[in-house]
Design goal:
The complex is a heterodimer of chains A (about 325) and B (about 500). Chain A is an alpha/beta fold and about 325 residues long. Helices cover about 45% and strands about 20% of the residues of chain A. A six-stranded mixed β-sheet of chain A has the order 2-1-3-10-4-11, sandwiched between helices. Chain B has one domain. The chains are: A alpha/beta (about 325), B mainly alpha (about 500).
Chain lengths: ~325, ~500
């Protein structure tokens, strides 16, 4: 009787300890933690997740965790075990920007990259019947003549569009009031109704209704970004040097896992994502949403992300400058 | 446009998907903690394997069924399956306790279906004008609308206005926890990242209502007894009970559809506001809060009409009306369809198809809802010793599933205790929920308005809609003060006359 109990106990312990090690990975649902709510970015993640789930043979779900500039999503993902069942959708804001702003205590080097996912450009837009200016330079001239009077939205505060727009305004020495909105479409709506002067426009919003706002400046010098916004003027077309280039002023994400994830599981995920990102069907779906599928694999991570990190670091004082200049203007 | 879409809706697969979506919606709506949003998110990967109209039919049916399903647990167990159904329990639960559970559910389903159809008609007939109306709503108007919603606290506070106001204020204070949207500073998070978005609304609602109710049931001495409540099945005739209250139905559905058309406003405002208005206009023999049929009609028709209203900005402007429609937009984007004005020009068949599947879902809701209600009503026959752990398990699963957070489970249990204390002190629970939900809408829009106006308050009266809402709010507050004073004076007279005799 005693032997039976010991045997049963040992078998149970073995099953508990040895079971997961012997089982083939993956054997259950994998979660990808997305640092934003429903919207075009979630749609892109869903497209990649569905295709990866098919490759891996298990469902891969997207867990939308908006809030605190993406920090909550990262903290949620970091609180889970490093077992390959949690993927972090490493959007640039929580991955690079928030640590630069001192809002997060991790760095991009603390994660293991799987593959780059997609990028999307931003633009500045204003209402179509605007009479005070007809170009970005004219708007800057108006803003300089009326310090603190311009009101704009970058969506949430301290996010990438906020940094890039503050940097652009700082380059022209224009003091403007940032008004946070929890939903970019709500800000677009207030620009259209005249209560807000200009806003950031992501390519998804632009595609939904290209005539809703006049696109005054595409915040990227890359031709593909200009093309995504119907050929609107870009930072390559203006005289001023805003000090932003490459991926730095754009939204992009890199799928990541926690540092201690078993290497063989990392390889499984990398292989699946690598296949998915070259799948013409997946690429077509992502492109249709106005996003650009990225080709970089894990070996490019350090080089690409460190470049963006260095550039964003030099821009980091723009938001602080905006706050202080606004106080002085009042 | 509707004719264009007709061909896409009449296929067998579309009708089957709508039916399946409704059943899923009713189940996720009835389970505490889940709800239409969770149902839509869970089944999104499956839905996007179908063409746009079929996928939308499936997801919209979950949305419609889920908006109604919460009423079932509210009526049977005094637990709103979703925050949307919190206003339904005021009269639904007392009605069930009087042995009319099946009637109460039948009325809730019929009112939801009719309210939804009404919302659908508004969607079809007035989409462009409602979209224009919604486009004119900015931060000053949302701030005023939040205040309108808060005035409904007066209607749901029962006999103690003071206690209702205290609970509502506590809700507003709880809503301040989390990351401040305007300064990115953390407020009352105590260093816990789980609180960076504030308290989970689902954890609060489930805790306050479900955990406290189950704890309350535990204190009874009838845990092993089989309840003797009637479980008669509802008939299709319950629709007549609803149609008899047609002014209430039309008024509440209109409130629901209009509030739904405003992005971010949501079904909770519409159901509580419709309930408050219905109570104000009720006949003296209808005792709201004690099982009045009109209370269920108002709350349920409003929250399902909200779903129709929310599709207006979703389709016409590409702006999600609420979190669930944001996921619907995501599904459309994945399927290569961009909601917004161009959708009406380029894909009128899809727009017409979506309008028709929404109508179909509401009509089917009535039929399927009435047919499956007996399954739900059998819950009343369960012994409490079985019912209590089952409900607690479902609450835990539902609350955890929202964001896979153990912390939310602790929040749920903590608010269960808060609910017990509040009930013991005679404090109504609904005002706390109203405060928590409307707090961020009010605070953020007041602060946004002040930034936009460079700190000038005159913006609230310079904009016509904001000024109108301000006037309505003042009138509502004066009414509340007047009726409360009158009741107090009447009570004093009654006490004096009793002393005289």
């Amino acid at each position: 009787m005693k032997f039976t109990s010991v045997f049963t106990g040992a078998a149970l312990v073995l099953a508990m300890i040895g079971g997961p090690a012997l089982a083939e990975y993956p054997e259950r649902t994998i979660e990808s933690v997305l640092p934003s709510g429903a919207g075009p970015a979630m749609s892109v993640s869903q497209i990649i997740a569905d295709a990866m789930g098919k490759e891996l043979g298990v469902p891969l779900t997207v867990l939308a965790t908006p809030g605190a500039g993406g920090i909550k999503a990262f903290q949620t993902a970091l609180s889970k075990p490093a077992d390959g069942y949690t993927i972090i959708d490493g959007y640039v804001a929580p991955l690079v920007l928030q640590p630069i702003l001192g809002k997060a205590d991790w760095s991009y080097g603390d994660f293991i990259p799987l593959h780059a996912a997609a990028s999307n450009a931003f633009a500045i837009g204003w209402r179509t019947d605007e009479t005070r200016w007809s170009s970005f330079e004219e708007m800057m001239a108006w803003g300089k003549a009326n310090p603190g009077k311009l009101r704009y939205s970058s969506g949430q505060r301290n996010n990438l569009p906020h940094l890039v727009m503050a940097k652009a305004l700082q380059s022209y020495d224009v003091v403007a009031q940032n008004v946070p909105y929890d939903s970019p479409p709500a800000a677009n709506n207030d620009v259209k109704s005249g209560i807000l002067d200009f806003t950031f426009v992501n390519v998804g919003s632009y595609k939904q209704d290209p005539d809703a706002l006049k696109i005054g400046l595409v915040l990227s010098e890359q031709p593909a970004a200009k093309e995504a916004f119907g050929g609107a003027p870009s930072i390559a077309d203006i005289d001023a040097d805003l000090g932003i280039s490459g991926l730095a002023p754009m939204g992009w994400d890199w799928w990541l896992v926690k540092k201690d994830t078993p290497p063989e599981r990392v390889e499984t995920l990398r292989a699946a994502m690598g296949k998915v990102m070259v799948d013409p069907d997946v690429r077509a779906k992502i492109t249709r949403l106005g996003f650009v599928p990225l080709d970089w694999d894990h070996s490019d991570y350090d080089k690409i992300v460190s470049g963006v990190h260095d550039q964003l670091s030099t821009m980091a004082d723009a938001i602080k400058w905006e706050e202080e200049a606004l106080k002085a203007a009042k | 446009m509707l004719l264009d879409g007709l061909g896409l809706v009449t296929s067998f697969s579309t009708v089957t998907l709508v039916g399946a979506g409704l059943i899923v919606g009713l189940i996720v709506g009835a389970l505490p903690g889940l709800g239409p949003l969770m149902g839509i998110i869970l089944l999104l990967p499956y839905a996007i394997t179908f063409p746009p109209v079929q996928a939308m039919g499936f997801l919209i049916a979950i949305y419609v069924g889920g908006s109604c399903g919460g009423a079932i647990s509210a009526i049977l167990l005094r637990i709103p399956g979703t925050p949307l159904a919190a206003a339904t329990l005021f009269d639904g639960y007392p009605m069930a306790q009087k042995g009319r559970a099946a009637d109460a559910i039948g009325i809730a389903i019929a009112a939801s279906a009719l309210g939804g159809v009404f919302g659908g008609l508004i969607l079809i007939l007035f989409s462009p004008s409602l979209a224009a109306f919604a486009a004119g709503f900015g931060p000053p108007e949302y701030a005023m609308l939040a205040i309108t919603g808060l005035t409904s606290i007066a209607a749901v506070s029962g006999h103690s206005m003071l206690k209702g106001l205290i609970a509502g204020t506590a809700g507003l204070l709880l809503a301040t926890a989390g990351t401040d949207e305007f300064t990115a500073a953390e407020r009352f998070t105590f260093g816990l990242f789980e609180l960076s978005n504030g308290f989970s609304i689902v954890a609060i609602v489930v805790g306050l209502f479900a955990i406290s109710e189950m704890s309350h049931l535990l204190t009874g001495d009838d845990l092993l007894d089989r309840p003797k409540l009637s479980t008669a099945r509802p008939g299709f005739g319950t629709v007549l009970l609803v149609l008899r209250r047609w002014p209430n139905l039309i008024r509440s559905s209109t409130i629901g559809a209009c509030v739904g058309a405003l992005p971010g406003a949501g079904g909770v405002i519409s159901s509580f506001t419709a309930y408050a208005v219905a109570k104000t206009f009720s006949k003296s023999d209808e005792r709201y809060g004690e099982g009045a049929e009109g209370g269920i009609v108002a709350a349920e028709s409003a929250n399902n009409a909200t779903a129709g209203g929310a599709l207006v900005p979703t389709l016409a402007l590409g702006i999600p009306g609420d979190a669930a429609t944001a996921v619907l937009i995501g599904a459309l984007l994945i399927l290569g369809v961009f909601p917004g004005p161009t959708l009406f020009e380029q894909h009128s068949d899809i727009v017409g198809g979506v309008f028709l599947v929404y109508m179909l879902a509401n009509i089917a809701l009535f039929v399927i809802g009435i047919l499956v209600t007996p399954l739900f009503v059998h819950v009343l026959r369960l012994r409490k010793v079985v019912l209590i752990p089952t409900v607690l398990l479902m609450c835990a699963i539902g609350t955890y599933a929202v964001s896979s957070s153990i912390f939310d489970l602790w929040v749920m249990f903590a608010f269960g205790l808060v609910g017990l204390v509040l009930r013991a002190g005679g404090y109504p629970l609904a005002p706390l929920v109203i405060g928590v939900i409307l707090g961020p809408l009010l605070e953020n829009n007041v602060r946004r308005t002040l930034l936009l106006s460079h700190d000038g308050l005159s913006i609230f009266i310079e904009r016509p809609v904001s000024a109108t809402l301000l006037f309505i709010n003042i009138a509502l507050l004066l009414c509340v003060v007047f009726f409360t004073m009158r009741r107090l004076i009447a009570g004093r007279h009654s006490d004096l006359s009793q002393e005289d005799t």
